């Protein structure tokens, strides 16, 4: 990381603010337009003469606490007073380094750089004090926003040293604190945005208001690729500006292009909504107009009957199945799923005088910036993307089609335009989590241990959104719980198959881990039951004693190979946490599942029974090993949220299509888990132990659905192999 000192003159024209920047200087702007200093490319920190430290977050906040975590890391190495730290949000700019808040990678990718940034600032303040007092650097200490010299009793607030520190060269090497010295890293801290959110002051996409701004509500074709054949003009009314027709996205490889439809532009949201509901539109045909989820599910099931593309093959699986022994096989299915963030997509765009400014709840402002630049044929430097708070996202808001809609309409109207999606828009025009089917077949011994194991997976790949020719699952999709299955037997083969969907598919929280974890964990439970074994003991016997797992296909980043010892540890911890061996009331069952994803290890136990003919989860237990973690309260909250998210998918989640149209529309027919359905959850976060940081936001989801299926089998004797779980 090339670090450079940014002068006060370049920052705020001689304001006396100490600014430490990495790489090239820039200015981070809050959505309200206020300015703070930049610390690039991965951390931005400014120290004012009054001692206020401003940390700029280059990642999007969607409730996962990343802005707080970034501030914790910086403040710890800076040795700042937490009460004097505030946050700013970075705009989309390559100078900040990677800004994509996706894949549970924010701390994993930035932890050391964030620490170095804070440590460099602390060292420069010490150097400034040492020079000012004429003492040796090693006699000067920095702690809790002050620099002190014990020998002379002199001390100075950070703010008093800001101007002197700004004149110093940035050190090329810095020393980081030891884990024992951390004041904020690894400690519970209340999220910095909680107060504003609780008081209704949080700034979301729909909250942005610009002078002379119009509002647009778009009526989109029910099927992908369909356009407007004819639309009747609405009756004139106060506040109505007019209609604009947006061309449809290409039905093959639609990427993030606007879906297309009729935009109702008005001076206020209610008028736009009211007119949109009354429009009479005739749509053009599309190849996807005949698409249905039922035929696709049937085709996925049929594809499992034949060999797919071989990904891994050891021993002789076919010969093993021809030998004597007990055979077990099963098919597992999951449907299309919607993201359903509480905040539907919204974006404000202003295209004027060869420049474009966007305010939106996006997960990746840099890719959004590039797409807007390309869409408008406008130089990148003329595009400004400001990130608001995200009211939930789960991967949906990394796809900025809604931003391009606002950009297109602002360009035409020559005034700022806010595009507001409704809940129905969000449900019917999402980038859906792909439907899937998996086939597992094993030859097992008397203990239920597999001596041969065949696995097949089939699903429409996310790459089909980017290319009309894409078909087969991508290597990175298969790495999500399939090729990195932690069990090795002497005869084993993994195969995959792909299919083109008739809708847009995209990444959603934990992505392909959802269906791969479901099939692998339920099938493992079925093997244990066949052998009459305890599910956890059986699983531990299937695993190696320790060591790093070698996997085919996509390889983990350095330092993040799957550690079987850590996997075994979370299994043991969740057994202890759940009091697994304690006898439960009759009709109550325990279900276990474990999964490795996003470089973390998560084991789940659910306690469930049938109540009034429906599943009732009475308790949940989660053990998480994510290596070094910044905020343990956030880690626990993410696991609690993962249980709710996972149970929502397992019990309610299903998007169906017929004649190219999504049949669901809102929470009444695509429900979330209700409060009375949510179980008490106990979480154990494994101590960091100096390990590399890994993901937290996503890895808690994959084990939840299979743990529920296994718990219901233990409670009722009925095996559930398809999601959502339907009662007979």
Describe this structure in words.
With 728 residues, this protein is an alpha+beta fold. The chain is built from 17 helices and 30 strands. It has a 7-stranded mixed beta sheet with strand order 13-14-11-21-18-19-20. Strands 1-2-5-6-7 form a 5-stranded mixed beta sheet. Strand 8 (140-143) and strand 9 form a beta hairpin. Helix 9 (365-376) crosses helix 10, helix 13 packs parallel to helix 17 and helix 16 (632-651) crosses helix 17 (704-716). The radius of gyration is 27 Å and the shape is globular. 53% of the residues are buried.
Percent in helix: 25-40%
Strand-residue fraction?
15-25%
Structural class estimated from helices and strands: alpha+beta
Contiguous helical run count: 17
Whole-angstrom Rg: 27 Å
The residue-averaged pLDDT reads 92
How many strand elements? 30
Describe the biggest sheet?
7 strands, mixed
Termini separation comes to: 60 Å
Shape: globular
Low-confidence runs of at least 5 consecutive residues: 1-42
What is the strand arrangement across the widest sheet? Answer: 13-14-11-21-18-19-20
